[in-house]
Design a protein that fits this description.
Number of strands of chain A: 4
Oligomer: heterotrimer
CATH topology of the largest domain in chain B: Rossmann fold
Number of strands of chain B: 10
CATH class of chain A: Mainly Alpha
Structural class of chain B: alpha/beta
Strand order of the largest sheet of chain B: 6-7-8-3-9-10
Number of domains of chain A: 1
Distance between the termini of chain A: 15 Å
CATH class of the largest domain in chain B: Alpha Beta
Chains: A mainly alpha (about 325), B alpha/beta (about 250), C mainly alpha (about 300)
CATH architecture of chain A: Orthogonal Bundle
Largest sheet of chain B: 6 strands, mixed
CATH topology of chain A: ABC transporter involved in vitamin B12 uptake, BtuC
Shape of chain B: globular
Number of helices of chain A: 13
Helix content of chain A: over 70%
CATH architecture of the largest domain in chain B: 3-Layer(aba) Sandwich
Radius of gyration of chain A: 19 Å
CATH superfamily of the largest domain in chain B: P-loop containing nucleotide triphosphate hydrolases
Structural class of chain A: mainly alpha
Largest sheet of chain A: 2 strands, antiparallel
Strand order of the largest sheet of chain A: 1-2
Order of helices and strands of chain A: HHHEEHHEHHHHEHHHH
Helix content of chain B: 25-40%
Strand content of chain A: under 5%
């Protein structure tokens, strides 16, 4: 049918065209939807590194998405209230600069991924799925019960964080920021998958015994992949917080973990642009089915079930008629 | 006499009441092919797994160049130059043949945590990988997915991967299995070439190949080595005859 | 803090642990026999709770409601197994996770469509209302005590079923070796459906029992499901005994942690800080327990290892 590059190019072109057309038509809501697609896709690109290339079925990526979001929310809230984040051992204040917030979000989600990964990767298979889910739930309950940053009610960001030279309050300009981050994440994913590291990581997914036999330790490999994966999803979370100008524990919920996974699977596991196809389809369904029936998630569930049972390779697999990745 | 590269002393391993390795003494000298033969269930694969570090012995020692390997895992032992092929071909099925060998070259280089440059665009990896593929007669099959290779080709692919590991010892677990007469002959030729690279511990059922290749043979029955000697000594050994080779050998 | 309060909290922990066991037992059984990870197990718990609430409200009898919770969950489980789950046994865990995640969405929205978004409440049956006086001056709700007894009763029945009956032998054979049960002349398809329905019935029963102590609503199953996962990770996958010990550990740790930690921090902090720190830490306690078990025994307390 179509070559995978053709499908990818078309997908990216649509993602860029939709907000431009929406801008011309005066439909800022559509631009926000496209921004949401770019951010969700980026979260999926992150998960895809662990799931698609590493074969690590993490059901806990909401933890990193939410931690990234809270990094943005907490820094912004301190900047808004002019209270220092900490005073000891040295004073650190809040900030509304994305260029400062992002490294913090990357570091925070990376450290969380390092701790969760180091423990979870001691196991494999079903254990790994259940443990990542459980640790994400731990972070969720911590956010709910820790009152300093809004607890259950969440934390508002009154004015969207700033990016030098841009007006982030303009939907199209904020879309551009999110889109650039998404492309960068895809670039990281492509470069990584082709590198020595990526080769060994994918080798370990296919045959871990063989990778050990050539003298490569799969644990370190997977841990590094898990951390990179968590960081990218964490950065997506920081952007999502800014999109909504709001952070709440729901970003950390198990449903969010499931949805990030759905983006990856709907699009096609282990494909660089699979998460974009998946996230776009998800938002489209939410929007279209949501207007048909308030019980649209039932239809989403049905569709997902049919994809899993019958359409191996996801949307890109169907479009390219190639059930397996290259 | 030169010091053995690999020396196994009084190795013992039990699974419950079953003793699968019963005080095994075994050595592998530089330049030789030492075959390990024995009936099914004698404990050959269990011995290989203990040498590789996949299983841990209950007692005894495994020395590699005089150094006790106890406490080292399979990854560390592979890094020391213990290159292994598996009884059932074990490759990365979605990778091409070349990618598989590149992975092994990369493992031997010890530089896996590099994130930028494409592995397949790195001549330091692909150059040696192509050369090793040629050594085992797989030239022209570089871009074929490993899952599509024939059984015999996968066997040779595993050998290329073992070669890529800058091995100091080959541990080959039934390389002839399932090859048929012609394939076995080709494999025999490749193995006799390999011995110049590093000594070989050869576990094999194909007696023609064993008698052609081996400098020494050890016979393992019910977890014990009942005899070790040259091909002629083993052929003449009455105990081996009755325990294993049967009347027609 | 009085001893009576502590005993009451410990009993609450036991009651919580028993509920978790009913969930975890089904999950671990299904994983042990069929090698399937079922996220929709929480949905079966919800089905049981709604069936109990609906039938008890309609007939006025809690007992009929409890029977309905068993039957409805077992039935839903059997249908789920026949229509969807049996296609997943040979698939990898990723497909199993996604397909059963899809089932959660369908069950949740389906239930919302049938019953609406408002929570239902159930009354404790007359016979079990009120409190009993326990030694040490503890007044404990009779109904919660009954749940503990019922849960332990089911646990004993389950151990007997697995240890002493024909079905139990087949289940254990299935865990050990799938080809062996075929050789024994057992209809595997039927066995799998039966095991799945049994696990579903246990979850539904748990759902029916809790309907009187918490509200019955869509989404009630998944938090319990995730706790049941923690239980299984601690106990070791496939082990009923591990599920039992793990469930009691988690139930008691969680309940006592929520009770004791704020008190503990109150000893050297002001009251509001102590509540905040104590409850935040308490919410993480069982996961910390899980992490500790993982470090010491990655395969769980009674697991065969990974």
């Amino acid at each position: 049918m179509f070559r995978e590059t053709t499908v990818n190019t078309a997908l990216v072109a649509i993602l860029v065209a939709v907000p431009l057309v929406a801008q011309a038509a005066g439909e800022p809501f559509i631009i926000t939807l496209a921004t949401k697609v770019a951010i969700f896709a980026m979260a999926g690109v992150g998960l895809n590194i662990a799931l698609g290339y590493g074969g690590l079925v993490s059901f806990g990526h909401a933890a990193f998405f939410g931690i990234g979001g809270y990094a943005a929310g907490i820094l912004a809230s301190h900047a808004q209230s002019y209270t220092p984040l900490m005073t000891w051992p040295f004073a650190i204040g809040g900030t509304q600069q994305m260029l400062i917030i992002w490294p913090v979000a990357l570091a925070a989600s990376g450290i969380a991924a390092l701790v969760i990964g180091a423990l979870s990767l001691r196991t494999s298979g079903v254990y790994f799925i259940m443990i990542t889910l459980a640790f994400a739930q731990m972070v969720f309950y911590f956010a709910v019960s820790w009152p300093a940053y809004g607890g259950e009610d969440g934390l508002p960001i009154y004015v969207r964080d700033k990016f030098p030279g841009l007006n982030t309050l303009d939907p199209l300009q904020f879309f551009a920021v999110a889109f650039a981050c998404f492309l960068l994440a895809v670039l990281v994913s492509v470069v990584l998958s082709r590198s020595r590291f990526g080769l060994a990581l994918q080798g370990a997914r296919q045959n871990v015994e063989r990778v050990r036999a050539v003298g490569i330790d799969p644990y370190r490999l997977r841990l590094v992949a898990f951390v990179i994966s968590g960081m990218i999803t964490g950065l997506a979370g920081a952007l999502y917080a800014d999109l909504n100008r709001f952070v709440s524990p729901s970003m950390l919920s198990w449903q969010t973990s499931g949805e990030i996974m759905v983006f990856v699977i709907l699009g096609g596991v282990g494909r660089h642009f699979g998460p974009l196809a998946g996230a776009a389809l998800f938002i489209l369904l939410e929007h279209e089915l949501g207007s048909v029936s308030e019980y649209w998630q039932f239809l989403l569930g049905l569709l997902l079930l049919l994809v899993v049972l019958f359409a191996h390779g996801g949307l890109i697999g169907v479009l390219t008629r190639r059930p397996h990745r290259d | 006499m030169t010091d053995p590269v690999l020396e196994i002393r009084k190795l013992t391993k039990r699974f419950g009441a079953l003793t699968v390795s019963d005080g095994i003494d075994f050595d592998l000298r530089p330049g030789e092919i030492h075959a390990l033969i024995g009936p099914n269930g004698a404990g050959k694969s269990t011995l290989i797994k203990q040498i590789c570090g996949e299983l841990h012995p209950d007692a005894g020692a495994i020395l590699f160049s005089g150094r006790d390997l106890a406490g080292e895992g399979s990854v560390a032992r592979a890094r020391r130059g213990l290159a292994r092929t598996f009884q059932v071909s074990s490759v990365a099925p979605e990778f091409t043949a070349l990618q598989n060998v590149v992975l092994a070259v990369q493992g031997a280089s010890g530089a896996t945590f590099r994130f930028l440059r494409p592995a397949l665009g790195d001549a330091a990896l692909t150059g040696p990988a192509r050369a090793f593929m040629e050594r085992v007669g797989l030239s022209g099959r570089e871009n074929v997915p490993a899952s599509i290779l024939s059984h015999g080709e996968r066997r040779r692919l595993e050998l290329a991967m073992a070669l890529a590991m800058e091995p100091r010892v080959f541990l080959l677990d039934e390389p002839m299995a399932g090859l048929g007469p012609e394939g076995s002959q080709e494999m025999t030729a490749i193995l006799s070439d390999l011995r110049h690279e590093a000594p070989i511990l050869l576990v094999e059922h194909d007696m023609d190949a064993v008698f052609t290749l081996a400098d020494r043979i050890s016979v393992l029955v019910y977890g014990r080595i009942i005899a070790t000697g040259t091909v002629d000594e083993i052929r003449a050994n009455a105990e081996v005859q009755s325990a294993y080779l049967g009347d027609d050998a | 803090m009085s001893a009576a309060l502590l005993i009451e909290q410990a009993l609450n922990g036991l009651q919580f642990g028993v509920m978790l066991f009913l969930m975890a037992a089904g999950l671990t059984l299904i994983f042990g026999v069929m090698g399937l990870i079922n996220l929709a197990h929480g949905s079966l718990y919800m089905v049981g709770a709604f069936a109990c609430a609906a039938v008890a409200t309609a007939t006025g009898s809690f007992w009929l409601g409890l029977v309905a919770s068993l039957v409805a969950a077992a039935l839903a489980g059997a249908i789920m197994e026949i229509v969807v789950i049996r296609r997943l046994y040979r698939r990898d865990h990723l497909d199993q996770v996604l397909a059963t995640f899809a089932l959660i969405l369908m069950f949740s929205e389906g239930t919302r469509w049938l019953f609406g978004s408002f929570p239902l409440y159930l009354d404790v049956p007359e016979i079990l209302s009120g409190a009993v006086a326990l030694p040490g001056g503890v007044q404990y709700p009779l109904y919660r005590l009954a749940i503990i007894v019922a849960g332990i009763g089911v646990a004993i029945l389950l151990f007997l079923l697995i240890g002493r009956t024909r079905l139990g032998i087949q289940i254990r054979a299935g865990e050990a070796d799938r080809e062996m049960i075929a050789a024994l002349g057992v209809d595997i398809k039927l066995l799998y459906t039966a095991v799945f329905a049994l696990g579903a019935a246990l979850a539904g029963f748990a759902g029916g029992l809790v309907g009187t102590i918490q509200s019955v609503q869509v989404g009630m199953g998944e938090p319990v499901l995730i706790l049941a996962f923690v239980v299984i990770v601690i106990g070791g996958i496939g082990s009923i005994k591990g599920a039992f010990i793990g469930a009691l550990l988690v139930g008691i740790t969680d309940t006592l942690g929520r009770f004791l930690l704020p008190v503990f921090f109150g000893a050297f902090m002001n009251a509001s800080d102590a509540t905040a720190v104590g409850s935040a830490l308490a919410s993480m306690l069982i996961y910390i327990l899980m992490a500790l078990v993982l470090v010491v025994r990655p395969g769980g307390l009674y697991g065969a290892g990974t």
